[in-house]
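ok, trying the design again with the full structure, not the truncated one.
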């Protein structure tokens, strides 16, 4: 099975379309012990093919436009947060307390980029905000004790596991039993019919209204991609806790952004839901159900809706309700052990679980819309970082190593734009097909600065 065939088939795509995809292979892009380059190529390629398929359907084309996947563009986009400059300033990607730590019997990794997670970590360990104090506290405990203690306090810490240990863990077993992309119908209603497309560039998602309830990287990458393809994407954040501004600067391209309290501003939010075509959520499973945002509750109010859900560990198993981030999933699933050495754990050359799952989530939405154009019906699609990790660790790449031209750096896939945040340098989208867009229609703006209405 080829790189893209594995992801395209998981999306329910027509395998006869795969010859429409060509690849520019670059041997040294995203180097690692695991086939990160192939995973990234497969996720982006499937997304671009899903976009081309929907565009052909809406424009009445005789065949699906050709898709071109360039490993250089993909490698650059998969570390877009590292290439971002805001008025020449490079954002901080990991806070000092987000790192690996030695424990009495191994290693843990913590995530403390957000102030509330940092406060919970320190409270769980009963130490001040000091690296040496945290080191001392963790060195006295076992890795599993740290994992459970910090999670019980609402913080984030994960013990290092080997692939074999993860495969035997109840959550690993639950994740492995699920498909890469979970897809199901929610109702029997016809969705809002999107008008035919004409003109150039071909924007498959033009006229689509996407309500974006995601944070960090994976979900925002998915909605950033839908915005590239012409969708009216409205990101909704709560007043507290706030998103990290630099995080939004990287993933906010093409979107508008509002701040809403879902309790106090309920009427406004319901008006948005009532006219949405797609709702994308990226909070931990069940966290939004109290606001009527489960797929079933949403489609009851808005028949024909496409609901896309993203989580770290999946919405099942003993860790189904836990928070998680790419770096932590790498540690739990054995990736950090594979990429590390005898001295210490390692990491992938990119937050590839986040970025890869983000492009797959966008692809799943696009494929759901194509299926709707034939069959109607509301749909839900679900993806999990841990399941994408399973694809990566279980992948055997044939062919004896990558061939192709060299990746000589990101320069060809970086561009600049003025914005309300200042002068931005950023990575272009790697999603590319014949006649499609080459950049977003608007740069990232100030988080929460827009009005809560559809354009």
């Amino acid at each position: 099975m080829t790189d893209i065939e594995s992801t395209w088939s998981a999306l329910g795509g027509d395998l006869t379309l795969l010859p429409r995809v060509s690849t520019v292979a670059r041997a040294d892009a995203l180097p690692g012990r695991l086939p990160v380059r192939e995973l990234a190529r497969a996720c982006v390629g499937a997304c671009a093919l899903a976009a081309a398929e929907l565009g052909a359907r809406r424009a009445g084309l005789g065949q699906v436009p050709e898709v071109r996947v360039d490993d250089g563009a993909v490698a650059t986009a998969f570390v877009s947060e590292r290439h971002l400059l805001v008025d020449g300033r490079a954002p901080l990607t990991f806070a000092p307390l987000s790192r690996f730590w030695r424990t009495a019997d191994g290693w843990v990794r913590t995530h403390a980029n957000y102030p509330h997670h940092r406060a919970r970590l320190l409270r769980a360990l009963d130490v001040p905000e000091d690296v040496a104090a945290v080191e001392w506290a963790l060195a006295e405990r076992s890795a599993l004790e740290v994992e459970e203690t910090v999670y019980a306090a609402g913080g984030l810490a994960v013990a290092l596991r080997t692939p074999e240990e993860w495969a035997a863990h109840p959550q690993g077993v639950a994740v492995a039993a699920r498909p890469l992309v979970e897809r199901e119908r929610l109702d029997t209603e016809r969705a809002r019919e999107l008008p035919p497309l004409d003109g150039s560039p071909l924007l498959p998602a033009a006229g689509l209204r996407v309500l974006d309830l995601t944070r960090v990287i994976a979900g925002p990458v998915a909605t950033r991609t839908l915005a590239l393809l012409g969708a009216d994407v409205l990101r909704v954040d709560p007043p507290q806790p706030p998103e990290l501004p630099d995080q939004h600067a990287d993933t906010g391209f093409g979107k508008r952004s509002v701040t809403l309290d879902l309790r106090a501003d309920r009427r406004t939010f319901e008006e948005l839901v009532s006219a949405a075509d797609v709702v994308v959520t990226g909070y931990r499973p069940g966290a939004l159900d109290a606001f009527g945002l489960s797929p079933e509750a949403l489609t009851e109010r808005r028949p024909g809706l496409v609901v896309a859900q993203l989580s770290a560990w999946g919405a099942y198993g003993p860790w189904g309700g836990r928070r998680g981030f790419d770096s932590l999933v790498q540690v739990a699933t054995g990736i950090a052990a594979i990429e590390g050495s005898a001295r210490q754990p390692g990491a992938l050359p990119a937050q590839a679980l986040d970025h890869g799952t983000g492009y797959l989530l966008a692809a799943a939405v696009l494929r759901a819309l194509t299926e709707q154009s034939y069959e109607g019906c509301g749909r839900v699609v679900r993806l999990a970082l841990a399941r994408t990790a399973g694809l990566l660790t279980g992948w055997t790449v044939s062919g004896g190593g990558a061939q192709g031209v060299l990746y000589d750096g990101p320069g060809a896939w970086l561009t600049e734009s003025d914005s309300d945040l200042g002068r931005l340098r950023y990575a272009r989208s790697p999603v590319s097909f014949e006649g499609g867009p080459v950049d977003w229609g608007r740069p990232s703006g100030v988080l929460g600065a827009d009005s809560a209405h559809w354009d």
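Keeping the full-length input from now on. Residues 398-402 have pLDDT under 50 and may be disordered.
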